[in-house]
Amino acid sequence: MKKFIVICFWSLLFNPSNPLNAQVALNLNYKGEYIKSGKKAEVKEFFVNDLGALRVWMIIDGKDGDRPVGDLKDLIFDVKDSKNFWFDQAIKGNVYGNISKNPALFQYDLRKEMELDALDYLEKLEENHLILEDRFLENYLYSLVYKIYPGSLEDGRPGIVNVTIVKDVDPNAFICPNGSMIITTGLLTIINSDEELIAVMAHEISHFVLDHAVINVNKATQRQKRAEFWAAFATGLAAASDIYLASQNEYYVPGALTYSTAVLSYTIASEINARLGLQFTREQEIEADNCTVELLKLNQIDPTALSSVLNKIKNYCIINGDYYSISGEGTHPALAERIKNIGVPKDFPSSSFDRTFSSIISLSAILEFNSKHFKACQNLVNRNIKAGVPTEDDYILKATTNLYLFNNDEKNNEALDLINKAKALNISPTINLYKQEALALIRLNRNQDAIKAFENYLSSIDQWYIDLDKIKNERSWALTKDYLDKEKEWTAKMIYKLQKS
After folding, report:
1. How far apart are alpha carbons 241 and 393 in whole angstroms?
2. Of 226, 247, 446, 494, which has the maximum CB count within 10 A?
3. What's the CA gap between 173 and 331, in Å, rounded?
4. What's the distance, CA 265 to chain centroid?
């Protein structure tokens, strides 16, 4: 769980020296105009008075004093940066009005419980190898976050945003109540530019700043005990993983737990959304969309970048028969309506984006192949080839899908040529290389050459047996060994058949 140790806001909140405990919150120092007088105004700080009411200290027309938080709506802010922007959006969204109406004000006990829920969720994903750990990509994502978010809210609420990539073929993104943003590999695969990715992040941060999850959890009638809930989730996730991993994948990466949508439907199951407050209403989605559009304009980014992403999610749902999400009942309801409200989607092609996320594109191509989506697999591989960053896996996947989709000399020879290109790379040799080479040679009636390729495949299997000790996870070790045993037996039989032909 070291990966998920974040700067914890709670140590600040419950520290005796915390100014909020002394009835005064963090300094805000936001400047704007008081619409009732047209004079300059400054918002200095929140504080709690002797009656336990949340108030705001402001300077208006040169006079300072405390006012109800509802008076914030009478201010127009000079929004020049993301810090002022998000504070302005929180005011327009009546966040502080909602906070002031609750007897517990900032509800730190609930927020802490929701943070623990988010950490439990991430821990269960990590235990099942569903977290993609790539320091380069994580660093890149954070660089985009900092373009649109100041680092923290500084308004008395937990406000630190952190990003995690989850291995999930479905295109999705959401942000947990503690600021943990989840972006799936499926989403990073279907988008094509930084503009679209920034739009996604801005939308999720909008939900976070506007306190939508907290509002939704407050509306819930009851909450199952935390330990009980996550124990049940862990059992279901592990069972789904075991069922899938026990089956043999056509394209296998020894030592790595491959996965499918059957497994990953657990990552965004409806009960998880309810637990984390992520079952957003139509109004909340539209509010987050509007907020995102304004932020993109502030950063001189075409706001249709958001409708472009939504349109790609809609097309993905149509292709995969996910009409539930399109109908307006999923985590991103009423896609067509939202696209219409934002504007006609445009193209945001970027070869540099594909080069940056080429490893995820390759990973998604393997997923599509194992799901028998051969055309989709080829489309992904072709993106990496076009961007000039194909790997051995990319070439082999395209060669193999050629053999599945076609049966003519041109495509069979093309498959063999692609395998030779994979050999020439020698960046990260894969166990699948010689196996697919042998199958391509059989298709070309070159049986003797196929025997040699199978013998090389046996040698690579033997090398993987030696490397088994590098796999520390017991379940992964057992599954990998079982796969290697079956492949060795199958290959020996294939060599015998070819020798007799």
Report:
1. 23
2. 494
3. 9
4. 14
pLDDT for res 95: 94
Backbone angles phi, psi at 24, to 5 degrees: -130, 130
pLDDT at 117: 94
Identity of the amino acid at 289: D
pLDDT at 256: 44
281-285 long-range Cβ contacts below 8 angstroms, 24+ apart: 282/328, 282/333, 282/334, 284/207, 284/210, 284/212, 284/215, 284/216, 285/332, 285/333, 285/334, 285/338
Cβ atoms 167, 203 nearer than 8 A: no
In sequence order, the 6+-apart residues with CB closer than 8 A to the CB of 29 are: 42, 43, 44
pTM of this structure: 0.86
Between CA 445 and CA 450 the distance in angstroms is 9
**What pLDDT does 245 receive?**
55
Q: Are 185 and 169 in contact (CB under 8 A)?
A: yes
Which alpha helices (H) appear in 153-276, and where do they start and end? 185-190, 194-209, 212-219, 226-245, 261-264, 270-276
Tally of CB atoms within 10 A around 458 = 16
Q: What is the pLDDT of residue 26?
A: 52
Q: What are the CB-based long-range contacts (under 8 Å, 24+) for 421-430?
A: 421/390, 421/395, 422/392, 422/395, 422/396, 425/390, 425/391, 425/392, 425/395, 427/391, 427/392, 428/391, 428/392, 428/393, 429/392, 429/460, 430/253, 430/392, 430/393, 430/396
Say what the pLDDT of residue 481 is.
87
Angle at 83 between CA 9 and CA 8, to 5 degrees: 10
User: DSSP letters of 40-58?
Assistant: EEEEEEEEE-TTS-EEEEE
Q: Residue type for 306, please? A: L
Per DSSP, helices labelled H in 426-446 are 432-443
Distance CA 54, CA 100 (A): 6
Sketch the domain layout of the chain as residue ranges: 21-101, 108-342, 374-500
pLDDT tens-digit series, residues 51-108 = 888 898 999 888 888 899 988 888 888 788 898 899 999 999 999 999 999 889 899 9
Q: What is the pLDDT of residue 226?
A: 87
pLDDT of residue 366: 86
- For the chain, which residues score pLDDT lower than 70? 1-27, 239-250, 252-269, 322-333
The CA distances from residue 443 to 33, 79, 114, 151, 447, in Å, are: 76, 65, 57, 57, 9
- According to CATH, the topology of domain 374-500 is 1.25.40
